[in-house]
Amino acid sequence: MAFNMTSLLEITKDFSLAEAQTILEPLIVFIIGMVIYAVFIFKFYRFISRRNIFQRDKKYHEHEGIRKLAYVLEYIFLFPIVAFVWLFVISSILSMISEVLTIGNIFMISMAVIVTIRVTAYYNEELSRDIAKLLPFALLAIFLLNISNISVATPIDLLYKLPPIAKILVYYFTFLVVIEFIVRGIASLKGSRSSQSD
Prior knowledge:
Elements: H1 2-12, H2 17-48, H3 64-97, H4 103-123, H5 125-145, H6 154-160, H7 166-197
Helix pairs in contact: 2-5, 3-4, 3-5, 3-7, 4-5, 4-7
């Protein structure tokens, strides 16, 4: 017993609180960063992949005029703003992953991903969620495997590169809004037909 206690004391005397703090600080920062990123992506992909992005109070459904006005405001004005946030997030992720893509290609691929997420949301929300979380979790995997491939300054650079392609982005957003209305209209028609057949 005395031998074991002495051995234990010998082992523990090499440990110090200052050394533990130095070793654990980067680990704690890394964990906090991963948790924040994972929670953000979880909220983000569940929001973007919902068929009905804007949840309205049920009392507004009683008034036809208010319901139509809310619908127009949501999908003509709010939807493009929300879509820009999605575009920027996905473009930032792409720019961090790839060093070879041009700014035009980054935004084109990002918009293609967003439109795909929105179209598949009307087909199957689970499929839409899978597509929405693909790129963010791919970035996390690349970050974990090879941190040197990630460029942190790129998202900030992305903002400075927006003015030259502003006209292209207007076309992209117009296309996105039109597609959203089309697939929403098709889904509404299918819903009304199925309710009539029941």
